[in-house]
Amino acid sequence: MEIIEYEEYDKKDQLIDCLKVCEWGAGKFLAKLIIEKSFEKILGKDGKVFFLMDDEKVVAFLTLTQKDCIDDTNLFPWIGFVYTDVVYRGKRYSERLIQHALKVAKEEGYSKVYLATDHVGLYEKYGFEYVENRMDVWDEDSRIYIINI
């Protein structure tokens, strides 16, 4: 298995197709942001989408961006859109991607990374610490986590 970055992959259409048929609505939304070229406008400059690939099959994906669903420009960067295909769950593949994103963030000079979710107990096992709940841009309650890198 290998981790690839969307912008550096030569078969971008394959990745978009995977996002478009993703069972998770946020995957479809991510595809829409990329297709409509609004990814940067919504999530900030220099954002990245990482995919964990099993040959040419997408196993998992996530983003590393300046913005996320919490409207606070003082908090950045964010790991978001964390998803693992149903067939591959339970093998900590999302952890591999998260560790990769944290490494990239550190290389870019960041000392902490944020994550917003409605999951309880998932990201704590990867080293994230709960900060607080806030309303997200869709007026839904979201848990904010932080990890120092």
From TrEMBL:
One GO MF term attached to the UniProt entry: acyltransferase activity, transferring groups other than amino-acyl groups
Taxonomy, superkingdom: Bacteria
Ranges where the N-acetyltransferase domain occurs: 1-149
Pfam families the record matches: Acetyltransf_1 (PF00583)
Name this protein carries in UniProt: GNAT family N-acetyltransferase
Organism: Holtiella tumoricola
Lineage: Bacteria, Bacillati, Bacillota, Clostridia, Lachnospirales
